[in-house]
Every structure is written in C-alpha cells, then in structure tokens.
C-alpha cells in the first residue's frame, strides 16, 4: 500500500473514532456551564464566534482513536472505552486552550484561537472546565483516574519547561527531548493505557501499550515541531514559521543551536534577541535550522521512535483488525502534513 495507502486507511480510522465519540463528547461539553460550553463548542469547531452552528476543523482525534483501538487490541470493545476516549480528548483540548494563551497564538485549525475571540481569562476557564469533565467521566474507575491525572501533571511539567526554555540560552537537546516526552508523550501514552484498562488488558499489555504510546508521542512531537517551522499554513491552520515568531526552543531548533556549526551560531545570534522575529528573520532562521542539520536530525529521530513504538506494539500481542489500524496510525505520524 505504501504511505498513501496508510494515510487513507488511517483517515478512515480517525473518522470512525470521531463518529464513535462525537455524541458523548457533545453531551459532556453541553453539560458544562453555558459560558464555558459556548467557548468549548467554538474551539471544537461546532459553532462560530456568534454561537451559530458550524462545521469547522475539530482536530485529528488521534488520542481517542488510540484509546478505542487499544481497547479492541486487547480483546475488549471500543464502545466500552468511549468514556476514556472522550476524557483524553477533553484533556488534550484543555491543554490546547491554555497553550494558545501562553504562546500568544492567534490561529488554530484555520481560524482565530478561542482566547483571541473570547478573551484569555474566559479561554483558561473553559480549559479548566474540560479538565474537570474529563476526570468526572473516569470517576468510576480509580485506576483510570490515576493514569490520566499523572499524565496531566507530566503535561503541565512539560509545558512549564517549554516556557522556561524561552528565557534561557543554554538549552541542551536531551532536556528538550525530556520536555517533549512530558508535554506530548505522556498523554498519548495514557490514551493507550486507558484503552487497555477499559478493554480488560493484562498488566503486561497495558505496560507495552503505554510504551508504544510514549514512543509514538515523541515521534508525533518531533513531526509537529517540523511542521511548526516548515508546515504549509493552508494545511496546518497555523501561520508560516509559527514556532519561530516567538523564538520557540523546539526540537529542530535546539538540535541546530547545539550543533557546533556556523549556521547554529548565526541562529543563536538571531534567537537571543529580546523581541519576536520579523518575517525575513523567520525565513532566515528556518534556513539556518536546516543548514545546521536540525531538520535532518528531527526526521531521523522521529523515524527511530516510530520503529521503537511498533516493536512495543508487537510485544503487546494485539489481536484483530485493531492491531493493523494501530500500525497504520503509527506510520501516519511521520508522513503527516498537519
């Protein structure tokens, strides 16, 4: 089939997951206080800024898809894992609402960010409400709550590191990888773990699927960082060179800054100014990251992480069609364009 076949199959899997969690996700959001529900409905693409029905991009639903598939892969049903799948999607979107405020991002999913429309305070509160609803959904399963809350704490720690990196000039690649592991991998690992728990998987299967999700999560973040510099705005829904505007210390950037190359040194001089980069400077910074080997390192490391993820998946001995669907999603991570 090749990458195109994988992408088409993964697209069908993600559409299946979106349809399966859609009603429960809407019910959960609509059960929030009206002011919070309105902001969340806008953020999920269900309504426009005036509260009229819309059909905007609601995101990839990768995390809930992994939850549903992991439940099936250990012999359970996707339906039994719907509450857990909705919970991880709520937590993911809680983090996006807060991230956009902290990063000052003006666009997400091809339209203005929620804080840009409703104000920063309101968007933060809407994110808080999503987190509360997520924990409420798992309240009957203590083990599930523990898995999710630990992932949230890691995510918060990762975001804190990410913010502190912006003020520092000495960020090393290993600590940048650790940050990405917490900020992105933790929740994707938890998504897989919850699927195994709700599907009745063994402790060994849950551990292997968690490791699968962690490796996949790091690959996902590596590719996300590539798209944050070189992604096509028409496809990503974000501005060109969006990560460079705020001089973000993303993985390709740190790989370039610590490369010991002339291009890395020129990039450091650009990055260590105390202001956002202009259009021409961002374009030059992107050239320098590539010249210093940051783009190649990131691509190579993402491919390694996907290979390790697939090995962990095989060790979990997944059953049925879900096993192949998980492999397709894993391979999609490195070939995606948004």
Summary keywords:
mainly alpha, Farnesyl Diphosphate Synthase, two-stranded antiparallel ribbon, 16 helices, 1% strand, Polyprenyl_synt, Isoprenoid_synthase_dom_sf
Model description:
- The chain is an all-alpha fold and 338 residues long.
- The protein has a single domain, classed as Farnesyl Diphosphate Synthase (Orthogonal Bundle), CATH 1.10.600.10.
- The protein has 16 helices and 2 strands.
- The chain has a two-stranded antiparallel ribbon with strand order 1-2.
- β1 and β2 form a beta hairpin.
- α4 packs antiparallel against α6, α12 packs across α14 and α12 packs across α15.
- The chain is globular.
- The model has no long low-confidence stretch (mean pLDDT 95).
Secondary structure topology:
Layout: H1 2-30, H2 34-43, H3 62-73, H4 82-103, E1 107-108, E2 111-112, H5 114-118, H6 120-137, H7 142-167, H8 173-198, H9 203-230, H10 233-236, H11 242-245, H12 251-257, H13 262-271, H14 279-291, H15 294-315, H16 320-335
Antiparallel strand pairs: 1-2
Helix pairs in contact: 1-3, 1-4, 1-16, 2-6, 3-4, 3-8, 3-16, 4-6, 4-7, 4-8, 7-8, 8-9, 9-15, 9-16, 12-14, 12-15, 13-14, 15-16
